[in-house]
Amino acid sequence: QSGLTQPPSASGTPGQRVTISCSGSSSNIGTGTVNWFQQLPGTAPKLLIYSNSHRPSGVPDRFSGSKSGTSASLAISGLQSEDEADYYCAAWDDSLGSYVFGSGTKVTV
Amino acid sequence: EVQLVESGGGLVKPGGSVRLSCVVSGITFSKAWMSWVRQAPGKGPEWVGRIYSKNDGGAIAYAAPVKDRFTISRDDSKNTLYLQMNSLKTEDTALYYCTTPSGTYYGSPYVFDIWGQGTMVTVSS
Asked: If pLDDT is split at 50, 70 and 90, which confidence band does B104 have?
């Protein structure tokens, strides 16, 4: 069972801003950093944000991440049709001694 | 070009064993921190385990559901990562990915920016 909770779905129209939450605890987000992954159907996950708010090279600046306390958020501004995908947060969990992925959020445009 | 190519998946009976391989090219494999991540059909990704580089101590960690049944190893001379899976259960059915950070500059072994295409393991009688 995942220690990171995300809303199962989110939606928006093209151009809108969508925010996805990731709720954790003091044993994971509260003490470490959060990474975000995007997964398109039939493909491997793609790193979107690392260390809470950093974008790897090639990721559009429409994607941004933040962390506060035991929660994190991913924001997608200027929503585009190609952003329709599943999004997962992830972090190391000290209590579990394991890297955990969130429950996932399906974004519909 | 960086490439991770997994192989070894297939249909296995409950209680059986299988060994997955992941051949890595385009990065200095001996310095790479490698992980296995699996994804059951229709489910989210699940981290399976990680192995550090020998230079960083070679420590291995496993997720609770696979501990004592799965073994991660590496052969730096062959640029290959392995996952030995024993005592397989139906709930181990998943697409198995190998993944790694493209560089140690990320400062974390879990910034997975390089992924293979995955190899499917189906555990069924």
From this structure: confident
- Least CA distance to B36: which residue of chain A? A99
**Plot region of B76 (φ>0 → left; ψ -120 to 50 → alpha; else → beta):** alpha
**Identity of residue A13:** T
Residue reference for tokens 């192989």 = B7
Tokens linked to A63 = 């994607």
Radius of gyration of chain A, Cα coordinates, nearest whole angstrom: 13
Q: Does B5 touch chain A (CB under 8 A)?
A: no
Distance CA A102, CA B4 (A): 24
Query: What residues of A are in contact with residue B106 (Cβ under 8 Å)?
Result: 50-51
Distance from CA of B36 to the nearest CA of A (A): 11
A57-96 pLDDT, tens digit each:
999 999 999 999 999 999 999 999 999 999 999 999 999 9
Distance from CA of A47 to the nearest CA of B (A): 5
Contacts of A41 in chain B (CB under 8 A): none
Answer whether A101 sits within 8 Å of B113, measured CB to CB.
no
Residue B48 carries which side chain, given as an amino acid letter? V
Helix (H) or strand (E) holding B82: strand B80-85
Task: Of B47, B23, B53, B20, give the one whose Cα is nearest residue B35.
Answer: B47
Instruction: Please tell me whether residue B32 adopts helix, strand or coil conformation.
Output: coil
* For range A18-31, the mean pLDDT: 97
